[in-house]
Amino acid sequence: MAAALELDRINCFYGNVQVLHDVSLTLRQGEVLCLLGRNGAGKTTALKAIMGLVPVRSGTIRLGAVELTALPAHAVPAAGVAYVPQGRRLFAELTVAENLEIGLMARGKGRAVRDAVLALFPVLRERLRQVSGTLSGGEQQMLAMARALCLEPQVLLLDEPTEGLMPAMIARIRETVAGLSARGVSTVLVEQRVDAVLPVADRVAFIENGRNRETLDVERLRADPDLVHRYVGVG
Questions:
Q1: Is the pLDDT of residue 1 over 60?
Q2: What's residue 19's pLDDT?
Q3: Do the Cβ atoms of 48 and 36 come closer than 8 Å?
Q4: Strands laid side by side in the 81-84 sheet
Q5: CA-CA-CA-CA torsion sign (218, 7, 46, 48)
Q6: What's the pLDDT score for residue 235?
């Protein structure tokens, strides 16, 4: 299967402190790859490095034939990578429709894309005129994902999308990720909880102290849950 995104021995620093050490990851087309690890392990930094929000001191990140590490941060979404950060980062004072419009503008998309995205999240169609800061937490997460999908990305980066949500909303987000995978969109999913990962991931990369300890098919984790504790001590 073709690689949609490839990180090759990237090293990143915050000031003089190294936070990623020779991290290599391959994301296949249509795959859901989960980065699993403790708080502070480097999972979010890896996503920010992909987006150009944290400088890569050495190593490369490629999206197909495009070297993302050669691009300024504002050009990464236009290349086809969408990012939903932890905490959603919506424009809380703008309406649902206005937030979606910002997503559409990033790659010059129009009404057809918006309609396709709203078909994934029908509740948002009923809330288009509502100020996004007044939505429930689950609805805000849906809007953040919908805004990202307005780019029609090849790769979607999700940082702890299920955090603080009700079980029914978590299930809805899982369904959406699975549906995107079926359409060929590749997803990198950052999580701390293995139970949030197993139903949707194809492979899991264990991130510990800024290093990728091992990447395993999810079937191995289902067969041997103790592997999770062996690598990162979370469950």
A1: no
A2: 97
A3: no
A4: 81-84, 155-159, 186-191, 32-36, 203-208, 211-217
A5: negative
A6: 44
Give the pLDDT band (50/70/90) at residue 195. Answer: confident
Sheet holding 3-14, edge to edge: 17-28, 3-14, 56-63, 66-67
All domains in the chain, ordered by first residue:
3-80+153-231 (3.40.50.300), 90-150 (no CATH)
Backbone dihedral angles phi then psi of residue 16, each to the nearest 5 degrees: -95, 0
Find which of 191-195, 197-201, 225-229 is predicted with most confidence, using mean pLDDT: 197-201
| pLDDT, tens digit, 9 for 90 and up, residues 210-235 | 999 999 999 988 888 787 777 666 44
Give yes or no for a contact between 211 and 231, defined as CB atoms under 8 angstroms apart: no
For the chain, helix (H) and strand (E) counts, in that order, are 9, 10
Q: Which of 96, 146, 98 is nearest to 119 (CA)?
A: 146
Residue entry with tokens 């395993």 = 216
The set of residues, in sequence order, having a beta carbon less than 8 Å from that of 5 and lying 6+ positions away, is 25, 26, 27, 50, 61, 62, 63, 81, 155, 186, 188
Give the H/E segment covering residue 134. Answer: none
